[in-house]
Amino acid sequence: MNDTNLKYDVLIVGGGVVGTALLYTLSKYTDIKYIGLIEKYSDLGMVNSAATKNSQTLHFGDIETNYSFEKAKSVKLYADMVMKYLENEKKSDYEQKLFSKYSKMVLAVGKSQVDDLGKRFLTFSQLFPKLRVIAREEIGKIEPRIVEGRDPDQEILALVTEDGYTVDFKKLCHSFVDNAKKGNPEISIHLSTKLLKIVKGKDYYTIKTDKGEIQAKTVAIAAGGHSLLIAKSLGYGKNLSVLSMAGSFYTAPKVLNGKVYTIQVAKLPFAAIHGDPEVHNEKITRFGPTAKPIFQLERHNSSTFLEYWKTFGLGLSPIISLFKIIFDKVLFNYIVVNILYDLPFIGKRLFIKQIRMIVPGMKMSELKYARGIGGTRPQIVNNTTRKLEMGEAKLIGDKIIFNITPSPGASTCLGNAYTDTAKIIEFLDNKFKFNKEAFEKDLM
Questions:
Q1: The whole model's pTM is what?
Q2: With bands split at pLDDT 50, 70 and 90, how would you rate the model's confidence at 275?
Q3: CA end-to-end distance (rounded Å), the chain
């Protein structure tokens, strides 16, 4: 980028899986020619899309027991799009391994959980016809270490399916961009380009960066927690704050053949403990995530400390909201325990108790804290209701969109791109066409 102003019909801020999915959709399924994307890092997918920063799971809602039927129905529609894209890319490009596929199950332990999971199956099997209910004997055949060393009188039950996708979302970012360029060679990608300020003009937004200025008729922000910071600078989302929840993991030599989830704790918005194979190394099983609040917008990036507090807000209202949320008995106990999980010596000894719900015979010598692995999920706090807002957080402004935390993350990136593309066409006074039929034929 040089000092000469660049002009686009659409500028995307953020080169993670959400931003690149939108770039791909705009490029392939619309006739918008002038599209740009800026990313502050030197490569795509360096933050929460990196394999070391997320759970690598493509979520459908079949084994996520915190999803209602309607939530699972919605998530499945969008996750199916990503699944179809991945399968199509597997056929066309054998060199680029975007994903690995394993069995996956949700495990119920004890009579209460077994009864609840059995009831859940009756409802959710309508939505997921490949989902099967299995008892101890078949569980042991699929995942021997779940049964080995377990009290024979302890009731267990599982729901299982073969559609367990472990995805390298960083590679998926590159795949989206490569295919976007095939659809529209005119698109521009600006890496190592940091956003400094956005100014709203009469006909254009002026995007000031450390590499010069860009003008764009419409803007889509896909920068995680930073999206709310940018929104607030333009007067949007003033009643919202971000609670950054950092997830950590433990690893072990291969003890599971596929993905195994536990039953979600009621009232908690965070993922239940699960174990699954590393996306590019099935000989390693990763367990987690833990979840603890941190005062940064990005994990392992202390430079985002001040940005976090600007986003959170320093007034009395967000502080009251935070205290009301954190000191809820269930959430407070959860956070305290999860903070302990990250501590040297004691953390491993506490966390192994959770893992032994899945693998009863897990040995201390097998378990290792995964240093440098784990990302951050920006959980939205509504300072009007004093509550955490579950699911997707998106703000729509005057020809600008702020994607703060699509739910559940990368799994819905193409569905998110579909809705954003329709809105962008509207922003551009319907002068361009969105070929929804082609999108749906290819991906739905």
A1: 0.93
A2: very high
A3: 37
